[in-house]
Amino acid sequence: MSEIKEDLNEDKPKQKKKVLFNSLFQRLKKIKHLDKIITVLFIAIILLIYFSSSFSSGTSSSNSKTDNGSSGQETDIILIYEKELEEKIQKTLASIKDSG
């Protein structure tokens, strides 16, 4: 007897979930143009993520440059290194073209 009562008690939450799901599904079916609404919401979320990430990355890079007092010197060193690498690459490419 107690086993039957336990089974009935376990089925009640399942039945409530099914009824809730079915009622929610029926409400969603009644909404006209649901696919268009979902598409617009999806695009809005994507745009929100895109713009929030672009704004946050822009502010963090400017903050890191202002926090370091030597950011101008580091930029100069990076530019010098970049020019040196470009020259090495140009020399290497020129030697490859001449060898052929």
What key phrases describe this protein's structure?
3 helices, single chain, 100 residues, mainly alpha
Question: What secondary-structure arrangement, pairings included, does this model have?
Answer:
Layout: H1 2-30, H2 34-67, H3 71-99
What would your notes on this structure say?
This protein has 100 residues and is mainly alpha-helical. The protein has helices at 2-30, 34-67, 71-99. It is elongated. The protein starts with a helix and ends with a helix.
Shape: elongated
- Let me know the number of strands: 0
**Beta strand %:** under 5%
Biggest β-sheet strands, sense, barrel: none
Average predicted local confidence, pLDDT: 79
Q: Helices and strands: which structural class?
A: mainly alpha
